Structures are given as C-alpha cells and as structure tokens.
C-alpha cells in the first residue's frame, strides 16, 4: 500500500498523492494533484514528455505533401506525409528565429516557407532555401537547421499516429499500447478499407484539471445520474432501451490504458448494429454490412468489431468513444484548473449517406461541447474543481468503488485506479513508460 506519486529524488515532499491500500480496499487521491502548479510541472516532464502521445490519423494526410498542424504536449507540430510516403511530425518552429512555419490548419504543399524571413523547408523537414544564404559563415550548417522531430520518435498503429518527446525513449509504440492494440484494431477493422477522420474538429476548453476528464471518460457510475436528460431523450426517441442497464464492463489493458464497455447493444451503432431508430428501410443494409464483415474478418472477429464497442482510454490523454459515433479526443493541461480539448469524428470511408448522417448526428448530439452529454460532464468536472478549494479540510478523493470485488463492474472505479497507478509510478520512478504487463488491475 501507499503509492506516493511524488516521492523520490527531486520529487514531491508533501503527503502521499495516491493511497492504494489493496488489503483494506481503499484507494485515495490527494486533491493537490488537481490544483498544484508544481505537480503540473512534474506531470509535463515525467508523463507527457515520456509517453507516446496521439498526434493524428493517417487518413488526414493521405498524399505526399499533405499536412495538418496542431499542438501536442503543448508544442506546435506539423504532422505530414513526405515524398517518400512516410509520416513525420515536424516541430512547427522555424530554426532561424522561431516563427511558426505553418499557420494554417491543413493543406498540401511542396515546401514549407516561413513567412518571417522566407526560409523554406521540404516536406521531410530539410532546409530547401535561405534568402541571402551567402551572408552566413562557413560554420553555418544547413543540415543542423532542418526542422526538428520529436526526439523519442513518430510511429503509427493501424493509422493512429503517435509521437514521443523523450530523447531516451526505448519503448516501441506497440509495446507501449500493449493490450490497447486489440481495441484500436477493433476500430480500424470497422472499415474494409480505411477509417477516416471526417472533416472538421471540435476544439474547446474546460475549467478543470485534465485528470478529472480522464476519470470521467470511463466512469460508468455517473452515466445514468448525470446524463439522465440524455437517456430520457434517447428512450423517448426510440433510440435505446436502458431497462437492462448499460451493460458496461471495465478492463485494464496495461500501462495505464483501460476500456469500459464491450457490448454496445442498447445504443446501436452506425457500423452494423441496427436498432429501430435507424429506420426499418436501412435494416437490410445493416444485415449486408454484417455479412460482409463476417466474410472479411470471420464470425468471431466480425461480432467483436460490429457489435462490441466502448470507451477506450490510452494513457495519458487519448479517449476514443466508440459507442454512438466514433469520437477521438485528446487533451492537454494549460493550467492545473484549465485544459484544452480537441475531438474528431472517425468513420469507415465506404459508409453510405444515411449511416454517415447518423454518425455525424451522434458526434454532435452525444459528446460534443454543445451536445447532450458533454455539458453535463463539464458542469460536473468544473464543479469538482471548485470543490477542491476546500482541499485543506477535505484532502482526499475516494476512488475505492468495487475495489474488493472479484469481478468489477461498469459502475466500479477499476479503470480509474488503473490510470492512477500508472500515473503514480511515472511520477515516482524513472525508467521506461511501459511496464509490459497487461494485468495491472
Ligand atoms: Fe523563419 Fe526567420 S524566423 S525565416
Ligand atoms: Fe459523462
């Protein structure tokens, strides 16, 4: 027992941040982890600068020269496909005097030209041209002025692109993802070709600590309470029947990753799981999709891919909500009490218009900042953050639910403990970000 998330050299000198008493079945999180600027600085260094982080999806940059710009772990990054077909992440800061080399969200370009003094770079990041280059001495090395890449590497798994900012990183993306690979595969296999990011994104902010969002994303306990309005609306629209409960079950996937939920039956899903809400006339199409999936994947895998889904959390800041639509969401803390979030919608490239419409409608009405669900969660999490102002008197939050149960259910807090144990380990210990175990429940 007693995992002090901040102990160790150069670490946190205060009280135990995470109390993990497995004997008594008590799990407590010290509320300073949600409010303290020193802890946030340590998290940036020990967690975000050490783990593989989601940066984009290969479908966003299908052709050579395609690029998207975004912030990953607080850095401006260009995610691009080179002329060699390889995906790269280039730090979006001119090696001359710092300007953002690319300021647009996405485009295709043969070169990247900095608007400040006109230096230009190839899609692979090499220096392409420097106005008045003869003014530089012999010590000036073009090679050293190429656009930098994340030092720990850039890699893709089933089209999901990740980057790593740890110069000493020795963990491959596949080892890092561990058992989460199976569920990323479940999402990728929903298409006979490729899953694609649908145009547009949802960027927004929440006035709460990012770890509250982690806890909330796989929290089955709050669903029917905090989102009562949404479930009432769904039931009224004939879109779901919650009489049998939500049938979520949690599973630890190693390295702090977890999933909640396998069967999506009460929700239905645009991918091969028909419910009356989708319309009687679309029923044959769903049967056909399922038949094709069986042909392509075999009976067992087709069943898993088409009718099972859930909310997948990949440590430390990727959530894929694969229930009504497929929402990919990543986030980063700006302050202890403020985070930036971006969400995208994924769908099979071959999807027909009626199912695509259902998917996009689900993307907006379910979990978007203006939808039914996210405002409830935002209110709850911002309310927790305000509650932490009394942290001097109420020091710890309780994450013990279901801890002593042999079989933990969807309303237990197993997946949160999975997160906190990995968080505490990385905050406490040096060494690789992967423990290569899939059993840290
Ligand atoms: Fe980019 Fe000078 S800062 S060319
Ligand atoms: Fe919620």
Looking at how many chains there are and whether they match, the oligomeric state comes to: single chain
Largest sheet: 8 strands, antiparallel
Low-pLDDT residue spans: 1-10, 437-441
Report the average pLDDT across residues: 90
How many distinct folded domains?
Answer: 2
Distance between the termini: 14 Å
Helix fraction? Answer: 25-40%
Structural class: alpha+beta
Please report the first level of CATH classification, the CATH class of the largest domain.
Alpha Beta
Which ligands are bound? FE2/S2 (inorganic) cluster, fe (iii) ion
Using the coordinates shown, work out and report the CATH topology of the largest domain. Answer: Naphthalene 1,2-dioxygenase Alpha Subunit, Chain A, domain 1
- Overall form: globular
SS summary, helix count: 11
In what range is the share of β-strand residues?
15-25%
Please count the beta strands (DSSP E, at least 2 residues each).
21
- Judging by the overall fold, what is the CATH architecture of the largest domain? Alpha-Beta Complex
**Rg, please?**
23 Å
CATH superfamily of the largest domain: Naphthalene 1,2-dioxygenase Alpha Subunit, Chain A, domain 1
